[in-house]
Amino acid sequence: MGPARPLPGRALDCPRGGDFSCFSLRVPSQVKTFGPFGSGSQDNLTMYMDLADGIFLNQIMLQIDPRPTNQRINKHVNNDVNLRIQNLTILVRNIKTYYQATRIR
Question: Where would one find the signal peptide in this protein (predicted)?
């Protein structure tokens, strides 16, 4: 089985080996469909850094699967790599839990 292919028109619809600018145009616009993030006047790198802290992505995951979790998201990351890793670890764990629960149904 080969790698998963993105659907046309989706956030990851960039040519194989595409550069950062391809993703920088698509991912923030797809994420914005879940609600506002950032100030709107930010450049793409700043928006990616806002996504990299894991706070907004965890909020999106709560919209997809609102079941409460016992894990607290670090709301004030302030470029602390360890806090980002904790937030993204929680996000990955919640995504795994969601897919395992939906696969069973």
Answer: none
Token pair for residue 76?
Answer: 């004030």
Record the pTM. 0.64
- Please, are residues 35 and 55 in contact by the beta-carbon 8 Å criterion? no
CA distance 103 to 41: 40
Query: 65 vs 27, 49, 89, CA distance in Å?
Result: 20, 24, 16
At 44-99, the pLDDT tens digits run 777 778 788 998 888 888 888 888 777 889 999 988 999 999 999 999 999 898 88
Rounded-to-integer distance, Cα 13 and Cα 55, Å: 24
What CA–CA distance (Å, rounded) separates 89 from 19? 26
Residue whose pair of structure tokens reads 């969601």 in the numeric block: 98
Q: At what angle do helices 44-52 and 55-64 cross, to 10 degrees?
A: 70
The residues spanned by each domain of the chain are 1-40, 53-104
State the chain's maximal CA–CA distance in angstroms. 43
